[in-house]
Prior knowledge:
Blueprint: E1 6-8, E2 14-16, E3 42-44, H1 47-56, E4 61-64, E5 77-78, H2 87-92, E6 97-101, H3 107-115, E7 120-123, H4 128-141, H5 148-156, E8 168-171, E9 173-175, E10 179-181, H6 187-194, E11 197-199, E12 210-211, H7 213-217, E13 223-227, E14 246-250, H8 252-256, H9 262-274, E15 279-280, E16 286-287
Parallel strand pairs: 3-4, 3-6, 4-5, 6-7, 8-11, 8-13, 13-14
Antiparallel strand pairs: 1-2, 9-10, 10-12, 15-16
Helix pairs in contact: 5-9
Amino acid sequence: MSGPVHEPGPNGHGRDQTQSVGRGLDDQGTACTHRPDAVHRVVSLVPSLTEALAVTAPGLLVGATDWCTHPAGLQVTRVGGTKNPAVETVVALAPDVVVANEEENRAADIDALRAGGLSVWVTRPRTLPEAFESLGRMLAACGLAPPPWLDQARQVWSNTYDGSPPRLTAVVPIWRRPWMVLGSDTFAGDLLRQLGIANIYATHPDRYPKTDIEQLRACGADLVVLPDEPYAFSAADGPEAFPGRQVALVSGRHLTWYGPSLVEARDLLETQLDAVMTVPQPSGQVQRPGQV
């Protein structure tokens, strides 16, 4: 039997007819009120989902947040921040569906949008496999077939984590003043795990625990990973707090976004991590990743 039949939507993008009827449940299990086959206008409140939709279906997006920086040159109405969207502006755009994220957006704003009569699809991936599934379901909720970049990203990440012990442990600060780190049950933590790096705070009861610099220095991690978002860690802001430690400056977008950036994220993150990593050996010697 042949695969799903695709037909051009109003902007020329493929529509998956197997997903075109009925109301679905989003990642929170909430029933959405829109019909996927009737989606012509979308507002995105999540930068990674904005990129996913803009790359997949140019012209479908009519609104996005001020923080939605990709793809470059995106011409849509800006609706404020992820944590403080202008609800009235979103409602006035009359989208068929709003896409949001449980972590990125406040429940109060999602409730206000629904109270304004809008259908809101909320994502909540906590692992890389969940992200792939969530992206496919979000796109289907917008009447879209799985795009080539999603299949490509799956392939890129298909031969990473094999269940073996991690090669290194890491602490991953995501904010400063106060210091906050990746804790348990986070997408970024799982992405590092796929690369053989164990988040030393992965068993912490909080997902983004606050701590202080002395605790971070004493946590025993082999590596400090500093992404450039949400806090803009840089060579001049961050590494100096960890004297004598291996510090990797990495792309926050490629570590924390789930969308088309996953296609290039593995190569980029491995390059940024391998540039500074030495793997502890039982003999006390060190081994660079990739050495035999």
